[in-house]
Design a protein that fits this description.
Layout: E1 7-9, E2 29-30, E3 55-72, H1 77-82, E4 93-113, H2 118-124, H3 128-134, H4 137-140, E5 145-174, E6 177-179, E7 184-186, E8 189-204, E9 208-219, E10 223-227, E11 245-247, E12 260-264, E13 269-275
Antiparallel strand pairs: 1-9, 2-5, 3-4, 4-5, 5-8, 5-9, 6-7, 9-10, 11-13, 12-13
Length: about 280
Amino acid sequence: MSITKTYFLCPISEFISPPPTGPLWLGSIIRSISAPQYPLNRASVVAVADALPPVVETDWKKTVSTEKGLGLGVYAQFLQLATGGLPLGPEVNVEHSDKTTNVFAFDTVTTLAFEPTQEYVEQSVKAPAVQTWLREPRQKFALVSELFIVTGLKLVKGAKIKYSTSHSTTVKGNVGIDVAALGTTFGPKGHWTHATNDATESNRESEFVFAFRVKKLRFGRRLKLEEYNKGAFMTVGGKRDDDECVLVEDVNGARIKTAELVPDVAENGNVYCVPA
């Protein structure tokens, strides 16, 4: 059984020990999906009497890859300014791409789960820390307050995890400048590519909590138990490099006020770069 999108990734930067030594148990009540290691009822978790049989898998591996792309036209308008407003031919094509790939490999994965009843939840929220939280002004005077109860855990051993991200911007095309008086078309051919890549790997032999599943507790006129999976199985993003510019050949860059002279290895010299 593979991880589905009902499970949330635990913070890998701070490994959470499995129960009974760790803070996260079946039945733990947490305030935030992003910080499951701080349950409100850590000292008073109600024992789960009807947990499902543990499921153990070996040689488990999952690759999660997401890619987003964006294409833009009319990116050559700066050329019109540089050439006195002459009409342009085909537009420059600009493509942005962001890709994230996460590879998770474990020697063993043990899944623990249960389905809490209304009676179990009502007993769990009697924990002193939960009641103190409910009495805080922000919750006390709110129409609805929300917490989460942990209903599933995935414990892993022998972990090999790799996160990688890449961001790229490519500008390419043939921008023709139509000169009606001469009956001809001439103009620059441009290209520019910018890419960043980042990868992080980590290995861990000892067991830890890799992912968890929750249900939402809604405190209003009465306590409700709801399914919750928004943002489940989160990916790791990266910071974009906003220092982007477009390289255009065969144009006198010295006449463009915003152009900057920068070194270019491919051209064996300096080229003018116009900020996008």
